[in-house]
Specification:
- The complex is a heterodimer of chains A (about 90) and B (about 270).
- Chain A is an alpha+beta fold and about 90 residues long.
- Chain A has helices spanning about 5, 15-30, 35-50, 85-90; strands at about 60-65, 70-75.
- Chain A has a domain at about 30-80: Cell Cycle, Chain A.
- In chain A, about 50% of the residues lie in helices and about 15% in strands.
- Chain A has a two-stranded antiparallel ribbon with strand order 1-2.
- Chain A is elongated, with a radius of gyration of 25 Å.
- Chain B contains 14 helices and 8 strands.
- In chain B, a hairpin with a 6-residue loop joins strand 3 (about 75) and strand 4.
- In chain B, strands 3-4-2-5-1-6-7-8 form an 8-stranded mixed beta sheet, with helices on both faces.
- In chain B, about 40% of the residues lie in helices and about 15% in strands.
- Chain B is globular.
- In chain B, helix 1 (about 15-30) crosses helix 13.
- Chain B has helices spanning about 15-30, 45-50, 60-65, 70-75, 100-110, 125-135, 145-160, 165, 185, 195-200, 215-220, 225-230, 235-245, 260-265; strands at about 5-10, 35-40, 75, 85, 115-120, 135-140, 175-180, 205-210.
- Classes of the chains: A alpha+beta (about 90), B alpha/beta (about 270).
- The interface of A and B includes residues 14, 20, 24 and 31 of A.
């Protein structure tokens, strides 16, 4: 501890408080939208299932949150062998 | 109909089990019938804190699976005759608890006891969610420290979303119990203050348990701190918190440490 530190004694609690307030404001906002990604995933899956049979694992939905814009990435793989158009089999 | 109170926190090691034992014993001492249920399947410890580890024969999982009756699994405390413990099992099968099974056990306990305290495991997984599932009230144990406060906030979110009461559109009564509070460090600005914690969590305060050697001593002896020595500061704080839980209106006094001249000058303890 140097001499200067003796007079600088605000403590670290105000920093803790501020960090928590910022973090929790962000986390609560995300919590209030009940997992958008899994809702989207289910609905997209339902739409695709009407036309093509695919496995759950072939659909990837992810959300990337940015400062000003978020990106929604949807990756659907349709394997050539197992993908049979429903219209044909009917 | 008894009241079901879950003691939860999200974070581990903040004092859930100690607080369950201390609050439960404090309520039972007034003559109310109290059951303490350990939900920490695989890592039970409430039996040890209660000093009943050598009396466990049957446990919560046995009762749910029907291999033992509830009355066989409940252990009566040797000091307070209205206090009972339902231990958790040491099985490693984490799916040993079913929602229906837990619901049935809680319903039976609720019809016999005035208070049922559910000691939640740490985390936000299945065990913790089952512990809170049927609760009427929740005690959220929080240390004045960033990670504990964050996890408490998360648990408050779950209490408002995943409990039967919340799903029926009712409010589950929530109380924050601040444990391991060090008045001297808070005065020096080294520890989140009670106001900080309450403002961040915006949940009413049940009590403040000061950091105390007596808590460790009590668990060494296998006795809830409110029974081993009801006069020390931690025990007194728990007894008051228990009274507030029962609806008594008692003002909470923030433990206060007078700052000496050197403290004021240097902002640290004068050794």
């Amino acid at each position: 501890m140097n001499l200067f530190d003796l007079f600088k004694r605000r403590g670290s609690a105000p920093v803790a408080r501020e960090r928590l307030q910022v973090l929790l404001a962000y986390e609560r906002r995300n919590r209030s939208q009940p997992d958008l990604v899994s809702v989207l995933r289910e609905e997209i899956m339902a739409v695709i299932a009407k036309h093509v049979q695919i496995d759950q694992d072939y659909l990837q939905v992810s959300m990337d949150r940015g400062e000003t814009m978020s990106t929604l990435e949807i990756d659907i793989q349709i394997p050539n062998k197992s993908a049979r158009p429903l219209a044909m089999s009917a | 109909m008894g009241k079901v109170v879950v003691v939860t926190s999200g974070k581990g090691g903040v004092g859930k089990t100690t607080s369950t034992a201390a609050l439960g014993a404090a309520v039972a001492r007034t003559g109310k019938k109290v059951a303490l249920v350990d939900f920490d399947v695989g890592l039970r410890n409430l039996d040890l804190i209660m000093g009943a580890e050598r009396r466990v024969v049957f446990d919560l999982v046995n009762v749910i699976q029907g291999t033992a009756k509830l009355s066989q699994a409940l252990i009566r405390d040797k000091r307070v005759e209205t206090l009972f413990l339902l231990p958790a099992s040491q099985t490693r099968d984490k799916d040993a608890l079913t929602e229906e099974g837990v619901g049935e056990v809680i319903d039976k306990l609720r019809s016999v006891f005035d208070y049922v305290f559910c000691d939640s495991p740490a985390g936000i997984e299945r065990g913790a969610q089952l512990a809170m599932r049927f609760a009427d009230e929740a005690v959220i144990v929080t240390n004045p420290e960033v990670s504990s406060v964050r996890d408490s906030d998360r648990i408050i979110g779950l209490l408002d979303a995943r409990t039967v009461k919340a799903e029926q559109g009712e409010q589950i009564a929530k109380h924050v119990l601040v444990t391991r509070y060090d008045a001297a460090r808070a005065a020096r600005g080294e520890m989140l203050s009670i106001d900080d914690v309450l403002e961040i969590l915006s949940t009413p305060l049940l009590g403040i348990i000061p950091e105390s050697q007596d808590v460790l001593k009590a668990s060494n002896l296998g006795s809830p701190v409110t029974l081993s020595d009801p006069t020390n500061s931690a025990a007194r704080a728990y007894i008051e918190a228990a009274k507030r839980l029962e609806g008594e209106e008692l003002p909470v006094v923030v433990p206060f440490e007078r700052k000496g001249f050197l403290d004021r000058l240097f902002g640290r303890r004068a050794a």
